[in-house]
Specification:
Blueprint: H1 2-19, H2 23-55, H3 60-87
Helix pairs in contact: 1-2, 2-3
């Protein structure tokens, strides 16, 4: 997962330009991909714990690990990123 994260960080400046020519959108895509890549090692660790506990026969503990990793680590991080970008004026919204 760390190797995939490093590759994603490396190619993130170029991926947005494949889909659009708007500089602001390309910049936001780059930031999103970098933040997503930074969460990959944590996702790999949580999946390793999840698989280990499932292999031991436990089903309740993997459920808790999965809920915690999705809600507390990934969803809250995305919400924080959106709030930070919105407060910095990076998120463009229209009045249409």
């Amino acid at each position: 997962m760390s190797i995939a994260a490093a590759i994603l960080i490396g190619i993130s400046p170029f991926i947005g330009s494949v889909f659009t020519r708007e500089d602001e959108t390309v910049r936001l895509v780059m930031f999103y991909l970098i933040f997503a890549a930074l969460s990959e090692p944590g996702l790999g660790i949580s999946q390793a714990y999840y698989g280990a506990f499932r292999g031991m026969g436990s089903t309740y503990l993997p459920l808790l690990i999965s809920i915690f990793s999705v809600l507390m680590l990934r969803a809250s991080a995305c919400t924080d990123i959106i709030i930070i970008l919105w407060s910095c004026g990076s998120v463009v919204h229209s009045d249409n």
